Amino acid sequence: MLALHWKNALALQLNRRSGGEMSNYRIQGATGEWEVVIGLEVHAQVTSEAKLFSSSSTQFGAEPNTQVSLIDAAMPGMLPVPNQECIRQAVRTGMAINAQINKYSRFDRKNYFYADLPQGYQISQLYHPIVGEGELLIEADEKAGLPEDKVIGIERIHVEQDAGKLMHDQHPTMSYVDLNRCGVALMEIVSRPDMTSPAEAGAYLAKLRSILRYVGSCDGNMDQGSMRADVNVSVRRPGEELGTRTETKNVNSVRFVMQVVEVEAQRQVDLIEDGGTVVQETRLFDPTSGTTRSMRSKEDAHDYRYFPDPDLLPVELDDAFLEDCKASLPELPDAKRARYIEKLGLSVYNARELTAEVETFGRFETLLAETAKILGKDESALATQVANWSLSIAPGVLKSLGDEANPAYSTAEAQAKILKMQDAGEISGGQAKEIYEIVLKTGRDAEEIAEAEGLKQVSDTGAIEAKIDEVLAANQDKVEQYRGGKDKLFGFFVGQTMKAMQGKGNPAVVNELLKQKLG
Amino acid sequence: MTELTELGIKAIREGVKAGDFSAREVAEGFNANIASAEALNAFITATPDHALKAADAVDAARAKGEELGSMAGVPIGVKDLFATQGVQTSAASHILEGFKPEYESTVSRKLWEAGAGMLGKLNLDQFAMGSSNESSYFGEVVSPWRKQGSDAKLAPGGSSGGSSAAVAARLAPAATGTDTGGSIRQPAAFTGITGIKPTYGRCSRWGIVAFASSLDQAGPMAKDVTDCAIMLEAMAGFDPKDSTSLDLPVPDWEAALSSDLTGKKIGIPKEYRMDGLAADVAKAWDDGIQWLKDAGAEVVDISLPHTKYALASYYIIAPAEASSNLARYDGVRYGLRDLPEGANLQDMYAATRAAGFGDEVKRRILIGTYVLSAGFYDAYYTQAQKVRTLVQRDFMSAFEQCDVILAPTAPTAAFALGEKTGDPLEMYMGDVFSVPASLAGLPAMSVPSGLNADGLPLGLQIIGKPFDEQGVLNAGLALEERAGFTAKPQKWW
Fold first, then answer.
1. Which segment of A161-170, A474-483, B40-49 scores lowest on mean pLDDT?
2. Chain B: closest CA distance from residue A407 (Å)
3. Coil, strand or helix: which one is B354?
4. Under DSSP, is residue A105 helix (H, G, I), strand (E, B) or coil?
């Protein structure tokens, strides 16, 4: 089979460890310690205008059965035609996880009867998926229970049709079916069983979601079902053979995935320790009770009778198409994070926080560019200041104002002006917040606010010196003590001087002058 | 003047164009023949008004001096497997009884655009599964032919048995057929008409009720080779709605027709001289060889060594695909729904499909489901696909030595209705010569060669290289000219 392997141009200068090693996470059973082994199958809805094999719209939330073509309803004689955009998005996603892209892939039919499946089969890819082996890095995050970076293997990504939806609450004895979702393109992203703790499973899903959203191949809206995970969990004694796994279907949040791992692993441990055996089965998660329950066991599993779909030709990708896909990829989270750390000098924490979400880094990069422009400085010289502003100061102000704030006023230009004044020492951090508050409420110009509202620091040495003299005169005893070696009192003098200046003194100037006066 | 219903496509088109008669007169003539031929049961639904309306449009266009299409004024029959907008499309099944699609199949749409009109929807084996037209829910079609001195009812062939009977009995000058394992060629041979299955992908499958997707191909069934060329041209062409459709221009087959085979090589496959080949069929084959030599061709012996496995492979692949293709008939959205009191979803599926499908369809769904099942898939389906590849390779190497292949269409002349219904395997054996070309996706045609001692027609098959319909048609024309087949069934209905 023809295959390509894509490698990221930017090597990560991060501490990586390969998948498969065990985390410290252990379940303490009555008879000893247990390890957990986790694999995730994530279904991600492909961002596309039309369905995988028909031209119907994929818009979420439309009236039932208003987005159904003759093909979706499986009318006699209807034929599927692959949507190139869905193929393209799957390939781009594969490239984003450094995966092997299969230049030859094909669609298979998975046969079973259900009322939400008009064809009587789902068109999927069993034998020749479009994307092969890839990998995904989850970063160390001590607080989240991730002591080290870890690479999680991804076995494959294949493309398939979603099913429709049954509605059981419309009639006392009948079920209704809504085919709007039927035929929408999904990517099934299958991980290796490389995760060994709830934290790793959560981090994997969050990172995958982040990558999909960077790439633009899935909107990642888990509450709308655009992304959902089947969670495979088994337990074993440390170092022993893999245990029997269960698969908990359609878990739709990062938090729930972590919860499923936790409760399902505990359930299995309790079961085994009570003398029972884990059966391979499909389970459902009930978020209300926080438990999983059996849906069907392997014995009554379907025989899906997979075979190549004779209505469709194999998907054969040429080099030009692959080059186009590659060229269309944005800077991806790992590369961006590395660049933030190496080129912009950001802390690991800031880099991680900023790169997690598309919206966050988008705002940060715009603001950084704007600030650098008006200050005429290099981005790297301002990055930390802008990062702190973007990550904690600005969101804090926005949050404290609640409904009073109009986020539309929070332009990059307005914020850059505030950062510029702060950088020039014209305003203090506190004043920056106050000015931003007024901007958010009124949309007035930041510089005009600073002038009109007197929100500027005093850097005039004469004015500061006068206040310092007053403070020192009023605290002669403490001046003596300081000079006698009680260095800690320096802070007291700074505080008193700032208080006398109603907080408007430039702290750097105040410090400098105090040091001179106190000798 | 010759009776209009004796005319074929070309003669009608030319006559209408010249003003010798009107398209309406032609349609009226065939409508009348259909109305008086209920004993043949060739049509499931007659649509005389559709034919008249199309004819009137052609007459009006002619009166205005507009250019007329290649099928202008020609009313045709449509196998009831093609979706026709607003007209019941049943696939001869109970499960689709009453189903009137809101869409028109690509092939029928193209025919209407070329100026043809629809006389009605033709009977067939249910879901095109059968070789005798006895599996139709709407009753068997009776061949217009009879053995000399006998009034036993004969099979018109299948699955396009309504199409073959209608053309042979002058109920239509031509009809659409579909061919999965021989469903155009074998009924054409049984009824003394001409039919061609083009290269897989030539005609769009969009809007044709699927039997076995990797094998199904539409094609024309008509009085002679020229008419087939004209009609195939109107039916063929790339269709973006069918992923397996060939993205190639449609040649002007009619204009390039030539029965001069000088320089051509005709392959005679030795494996087709098998047990069960009727003596009269073998004799007809020998005649065919002489005729092609006479037309200037050189005859070469070829070998298609995997022929003996082709039939078995076909009867795994076709049912496998069918078992999946027919899953959509579940009573949920259209067609028959059998919902017993207190039934759940599974019960509804079971009741609907039990009532809606005939025995032959059920048999093939069961076979198909079995061969795709876990544990059997590799032994049956995968193995059958390997055989299919070998059969294709046989043809490809044979075509290094010859341009077209000549063989019988079927091992015997038409058999009596009921003669083979007790033994499905015996029925399947009748497809032995037609199935290999289907597995290889090759163009193949049946041309009448003469009558046997019982006075029944026999057919000769020409198999060509992929995309070389022209080579097939030309060899067919050479046979046709030399066979001089003019026999027609005596009207008894």
1. A474-483
2. 47
3. helix
4. strand
Locate tokens 């012996």: which residue? B301
Query: In CATH, which of 3.10.420.10, 3.90.1300.10, 3.30.450.20, 3.40.50.300 is domain B4-258?
Result: 3.90.1300.10
DSSP string, A44-60: EE---SB-SSS--B--T
Take residue A217 and report the two structure tokens written for it: 């191949």
Measured CA to CA in angstroms, residue B339 lies from A399, A458, B219 at distances of 58, 86, 38
DSSP B254: T
Q: Which residues of A122-156 are buried (b: 16+ CB within 10 A; e: fewer)?
A: bbbbbebbbbbbbbbbbbbbeeebbebbbbbbbbb
In this prediction, residue A14 carries a pLDDT of: 37
- Report the Cα A328 to chain-centroid distance in Å: 21
- What single-letter DSSP state applies at residue A359? H
- Helices A476-483, A489-500: crossing angle, 10 deg rounding: 150
pLDDT digits 0-9 by tens, A18-76: 444 556 799 999 999 999 999 999 999 999 999 999 999 999 889 999 999 999 999 99
Comparing CA positions, the residue from B153, B23, B146 lying closest to residue B75 is B23
CA distance B398 to B305: 10
Q: Kindly state whether A81 is in contact with chain B, defined as any CB-CB distance less than 8 angstroms.
A: yes
Which ipTM did the prediction report? Answer: 0.96
The reply to whether residue A74 touches residue B374, judged by beta carbons under 8 angstroms, is no
Kindly identify which residue of chain A lies nearest to residue B105, measuring between CA atoms. A77
Output the CA angle B299-B305-B310, nearest 5 degrees: 110
- pTM as predicted: 0.90
Are the C-beta atoms of A23 and A258 separated by less than 8 Å? Answer: no
Q: What are the C-alpha distances in Å from B349 to residues A176, B62, B100, B331, B346? A: 16, 52, 21, 7, 5
β-partners of residue A35 are A236
Q: How far apart are CA B429 and CA B181, in angstroms?
A: 11
Q: How far is Cα A404 from Cα A399, in angstroms, rounded to an integer? A: 10
Cβ–Cβ < 8 Å for A423, A385: yes
Nearest to B76 by CA among B38, B26, B37, B41: B26
Nearest CB to A120 within list B102, B207, B330: B330
> Which residues of A fall within a CB distance of 8 Å from B89?
76
* CA distance readout (Å), A484 to A266, A477, A489, A514: 64, 11, 11, 16
Q: What is the pLDDT of residues A185-235, one digit of tens each?
A: 999 999 999 999 999 999 999 999 999 999 999 999 999 999 999 999 999
Q: Which of A81, A119, A305 sits opposite B328 (nearest CB)?
A: A119
CA B463 to chain centre: 15
Contact B243 A81 (CB under 8 A): yes
What SS3 class is residue A254? helix
DSSP B227: H
Which of A109, A305, A311 has the CB atom closest to B373's CB atom?
A305
Q: Which residue has the tokens 């984003």?
A: A96
Of B277, B250, B232, B213, the C-alpha closest to B407 is B277
Q: Are B208 and B81 in contact (CB under 8 A)?
A: yes
Beta strand ranges found along B14-59 (DSSP E):
43-46
Domain boundaries, chain B: 4-258
All residues of chain B having their beta carbon less than 8 Å from the beta carbon of residue A114 are 345
Residues B376-399 have a mean pLDDT of 98
Q: Do A311 and B244 touch (CB under 8 A)?
A: yes
Residue B343: Cβ within 10 Å count: 14
Whole-Å CA distances, B437 to B129, B292, B406: 18, 20, 12
Burial bucket for residue A319 (CB in 10 Å: 0-12, 13-18, 19+): exposed
A76:B210 CB<8 A: yes
